[in-house]
């Protein structure tokens, strides 16, 4: 008896929960119309299995509240539509299908108005690919309907960057060589002619007197002859040497006198400081 109860328990568990899970994954929101040209908004459900599925206490809701509570069943591979008044927002909303346990089975969100009289649905039926239909297929398959082509936005042409100008290398300025300085040629020293006669000239002048010799005898014309005796080179050299030696002797005498004066002053200063020291003691 106990074994029979255990088998019955497992049978009910698999029948209820597994069949429930199978049914939850087999129903889908297949199509809906949010902006009808006339009449009410509607939602279409699709049974993807070949078995009949009961939908008692199932719900269709949006993001705010329950739209409609369902009842009955849907045949295998069948469709069933439900009018929901004007509960779906044209500008965007979310359609949600929940089972009797308030669990989400399927949902779909749209963010813009699909257009007047345009429905949104899956193609093929039950697949996860949504398109817009200009001619809704309420309560029937979407596989034969022609979807509205999705407008493809033309790609914006990417502007090509302007080519940057190629930098032109700046030519280096040619170094200008500084002009070579030409040394100024010193002017040759000018000889200053002294107007003062040299000693040799003085001596030569002193040695050469003019001698007038009268030559007039008895009315004959007389001529004055001037005899200019010239000093010989030997005599001139001797005179120059004599003058140089005299100058040297005078210079020596002056040096001797200066030295004597310095020695005398030194002796006197020494004696003065010596006497002063003795007096202080």
Summarize it:
By secondary structure, the protein is of the alpha+beta class.
Features:
11 strands; 281 residues; rod-shaped; 3 helices; alpha+beta; single chain
Would you kindly provide a written description of the structure presented here, covering whatever features stand out?
The protein is of the alpha+beta class and 281 residues long. Among the domains are: 2-133, Sandwich (Immunoglobulin-like); 236-281. It has 3 helices and 11 strands, in the order H-E-E-E-E-E-E-E-E-E-E-E-H-H. The chain has helices spanning 2-24, 199-207, 233-280; strands at 27-33, 42-47, 53-54, 59-61, 66-69, 73-74, 79-83, 93-98, 104-110, 119-122, 130-133. The strands form 3 sheets. Strands 7-2-1-10-11 form a 5-stranded antiparallel sheet, with no helix packed on it. The longest helix is centred in the C-terminal third of the chain and has 48 residues, at 233-280. Mean pLDDT is 75; it is low at 11-23, 192-200 and 202-231.
Query: Termini, distance in Å?
Result: 159 Å
Mean pLDDT: 75
- Radius of gyration computed on alpha carbons: 74 Å
Global geometry: rod-shaped
Strand content: 15-25%
Q: CATH homologous superfamily name of the domain at 2-133? A: Lamin Tail domain
Any idea what the CATH architecture of the domain at 2-133 is?
Sandwich
What's the total helix number? 3
Count of beta strands:
11
Unreliable runs: 11-23, 192-200, 202-231
CATH topology group of the domain at 2-133: Immunoglobulin-like
**Biggest sheet statistics:** 5 strands, antiparallel
Q: Assign the CATH class of the domain at 2-133.
A: Mainly Beta
The helical percent reads: 25-40%
Provide the spatial order of strands within the biggest beta sheet. 7-2-1-10-11
Class by helix and strand content? Answer: alpha+beta
Q: What is the N-to-C succession of helices and strands?
A: HEEEEEEEEEEEHH
